[in-house]
Amino acid sequence: MLFRIRFQILRNPRLRQSSSVMQRRLFNSNLNLIKRQSTSPIGSETNLVPMESIDNNVGQSLTTIWTDQELKTLFDAFFKHGENWRLISKEYFQHRRKLLSIKNKWKLYGTEEGVKLLEGSKHGKYWKLMFKKYFQANQTWNGFVNWTKEEERILKDDVSKHGDDWEFIFKEYFEKPRELESKCNSHLSLPWAKNEIKLLEDSVSKHGKDWKFISKEYFQESRTPLGLCNKWKRTNIWTKVEQVKLEDAVLKHGKDWEFISKEYFETKHSTRKLKSKWKSFFKGRTLGDAVKEYFPVSRTPSSLKHRWERSINYLTEEEVRILQDAVSKHGKDWEYISKEYFQTIKTPRLLENKWNNHWTDDEVRKLGDAVAKHGECWNLISKKYFEASRTISSINHKWVRSIKNLTEEEVRILIYAIKKHGEDWEFISKEYFQMDRTPREISKEYFQMNRSPRELEVKWKTLLKRWTEKEIRKLRDAVSKHGKDWQLISKEYFQANRTVSSLEDKHSRSEEGNMRFDMIKEHGTDQEKIFDLKTNIENQEIYDTKSTNDNYTNMRNQEFYNAVKPYRKRNKHSWTREEEQTLPKLIKNHGIKIAAEMLNRSKRSLYSHYRNKEHYCDSLMNIQEKSNTISKKFQKVSDVGVAKDIETSWIRNLDESSTYKSSLQRCRINWQQLCLQN
């Protein structure tokens, strides 16, 4: 027995999760109970609380619901030990129930009949069956069922007449009335009809809360006074008199709902009902309607005048159209336009101001021509071109606002002119901009930019476009005539629009590209031949650059140029069979960047087209095979430094051969793990 209980305690997860103090206390108490089982009647197995109830209640609060077994043990312990709650809590409940909780629970039931009542609750509210089965008609319910005043009066009369003959009293006086009362209550608990609710409202408005009178006169006792009272409290019924009373109370005392409920409604309507009813008044109504109902609105002459002026000063789109037509027909006769077209609602001064602020497209063009001829002489422009209809300030403001930023070509011209002539704004405006841009605009643009030559050069570089085919031919011809004198080429051929560094970079890149195209045309995609030829040419350039350049330029002819020409323009059409066949070889030998230059397509289009094909998976498999071979090399290498050099060179080769980051991330080798293995 000891081993079984100990095993149950240790096996139960709830006991393991509870605190160590509770585990120790439960374990010691169970051991003590088992030791005293043979000597003390307290420790008998019938009186002990089962392990299931212990397991279910461990870790829970002391105010949990009492089970049937706990109630039985409470009654057994009370009949043996009396009101010794401390001993009962310790021996029977192992301190899981406090003294106060045990004492209060006993007061609630008080006798053994409480357990029988709990067992009888399985049968529902069949009181007669429970009375016969569990109580043998020896005692009444004694507080388990609420006694009414009439029942107490009948009981006193019956005891005075029949004495202690409880069976006769129950059968004759209490069994039938209880059944009748239950039937009556079931009838009285029927739902309320609309006619009954209206009848209740009318009766309360006439007679107040005299529920007995209303039940007899209006409902013929089909509704009890208590039912009428509860219905009146539950329902939020408002009469017209009460609504008017609520409005008057809120206007006088504000939203002091407690005071209104006591003084005006005698606590019939709670503060919550009053608040919700007051909010429901404004549903579907605007604030203006409520203000008109409760507060008389009076308009003063000044408010009327102010409102009228506000409505007048605004012109709609139709009114602006009417104003334009009227001015085109009758000129700027504002008094006539105000009378004939606007019926003097819009004043002449208002129409004049509105017209002066509105600029048409013809006026904007006229202003541009006037500034180009006369400059910023606003007084002359106002009199000559606008007939004094536009003020000097409005013309100046319109011109300043209409100035836009210089275009890319204008900025390039401005930078070149400043380098050549300095800050001579009038000369630059006449010679380079033909007075389309005034000296003030040019100087403003110049001072907005940083005036350092380096920053001007950076801004100029950002505005440069891609190299066109004409510029590439011009560069090739200039290099064939003058060599690599980049300053002379920049001044003579490109008017300093291309810097020296940009010309040198473009020439070197074009040489490499042309050489690559020549080699591919002659030798195909044979990587070994192209590599040998390229190294030989580079070695020759190291020793004799001029001879190699001359030989290279002489080797080129018109046929090769025609063959390479389609590669110059970026292909935007669909892929041909030749391109699809050569694409995997080019990527395998030269990488995606060089392949994109050869096919003259963008890297993105090349990558998306290459990825959708089957040879993309084959290339990944090849990379994985290479990674496996290099991993074997790592295992053979003993020196960590040599292994790291091999790994970095391998990754660099992978980066050059393919720019697919996803494949590199999959196939990249963690050299540290390999070195640790070695």
Annotation keywords:
678 residues; mainly alpha; 42 helices; elongated
Low-confidence stretches: 1-31, 33-63, 134-145, 176-188, 538-571, 633-644, 650-678
Tally the beta strands. 0
- Secondary structure tally, helices: 42
What profile does the largest beta sheet have? none
Summarize the structure.
Residues 66-110, 230-282, 359-403, 407-464 form the Myb-like domain. With 678 residues, this protein is mainly α. It contains 42 helices and no strands.
Element layout with pairings:
Blueprint: H1 2-11, H2 13-17, H3 20-35, H4 51-57, H5 68-81, H6 85-91, H7 99-109, H8 113-120, H9 127-135, H10 149-162, H11 166-188, H12 194-207, H13 211-217, H14 225-234, H15 240-253, H16 257-263, H17 271-280, H18 287-294, H19 301-312, H20 317-330, H21 334-340, H22 348-357, H23 361-374, H24 378-384, H25 392-402, H26 408-421, H27 425-431, H28 439-448, H29 453-463, H30 469-482, H31 486-492, H32 500-523, H33 527-543, H34 545-555, H35 558-568, H36 577-590, H37 592-599, H38 603-611, H39 615-636, H40 640-657, H41 661-667, H42 671-677
Helix pairs in contact: 1-3, 8-9, 10-11, 13-14, 16-17, 21-22, 24-25, 26-29, 27-28, 31-32, 32-33, 33-34, 36-37, 39-40
Question: In words, what does this structure look like?
Answer:
- The protein is mainly alpha-helical.
- Among the domains are: 109 residues, no CATH class; 101 residues, no CATH class; 57 residues; 44 residues, no CATH class.
- It is built from 42 helices and no strands.
- Helix 27 packs across helix 28 and helix 36 runs antiparallel to helix 37.
- The longest helix has 24 residues.
- It starts with a helix and ends with a helix.
- The N terminus and C terminus are likely disordered.
- This is 1210_t:CDS:1.
- One of its GO terms (cellular component) is nucleus.
